[in-house]
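ingest -> validate -> predict -> emit
validate: passed (alphabet ok, no gaps, 337 aa)
predict: started
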Amino acid sequence: MKNILYIGNKLAGKGRTATTIDILGPLLQKEGFKLRYASSVKNTNARLLHMMRLTFLSRNWAHYVLIDTYSTRNFWYAITIGRLCKSLKIKYIPILHGGNLPDRLSKNPKAIQAFINNAHTVVSPSDYLIDAFAKADFKQLIKIPNHIDLNKYSFKLRSEIQPRLLWVRSFADIYNPEMALEVLDLISENYPNAKLCMVGPDKDGSMKKCISIAAQKNLSVEFTGLLDKEDWISLSKNYDLFINTSNFDNLPVSVIEAMALGLPVISTNVGGIPFLIKNGENGFLTPPFKAVEMANHINELLENNQLVTGVAQNARTTAKNFNWDKVKGLWLQLFEG
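emit:
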């Protein structure tokens, strides 16, 4: 089996949401691969230095370096490690996560061109990014979807639903948590008992703003902060609809998880989400910032139990395609092929 250095923000133990490095890494270890990780250092500058140091120290150990690649400031971590791997002659494999990465093609073309072209191969979890990069003449991307352990997600078929909304994401401007409050406010006009639960840590002060808005409008909102996956899965049994309000996205695992649990999903149609959700079949899509349209879809579901059942069952079928037992073979083929 191969030795793999995994570069990413491994901060689940530091009050942050678990990311791919926290989930994929241990699964690869169970398959027999030897892994090293960087980094769990909380300070951003110190984290980059740790990533660089461990990359250098692993130059004669690592067969491959996996690099979680995002579209915000963490983008530059990936670029830096890619350059270092090239100079050390280590094969590196970017895993593209950032929903706004296509924007980087125009803003930082030289940096991303070198990063992609010098990679051993490039992994994308969605057709969205494969299509976007193909249009820029990058052909070496392969698709390996995000994954879940389906056995951990008990399907609950809701024959009758109430206006109980669940939102699971980090509080950050790119995920537009305020839109969730707008939607609840609109739903409350017809359903005074409507309530919303927002699960996730605060990244940029957005949570404080949302708490203030909820208080000003007298909305029924619970803010749980960060929850372990097991805890929010258990919490989901008390809710009937899942909303996703992102302005940018790729293929969010939280949406796949909601589909697996039987929660009808109403999401913005950004990034890779339209490749996952077919409007009216296994969920509903609205443009970003269009709270009225999202509220209309919710009202439609609240008035049509048969529609709820069909959407939920179709969504569970979709989620099965992301089970680790199906996805792991693609990783094994990549490393051992």
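The domain at 150-321 is CATH 3.40.50.2000 (Rossmann fold).
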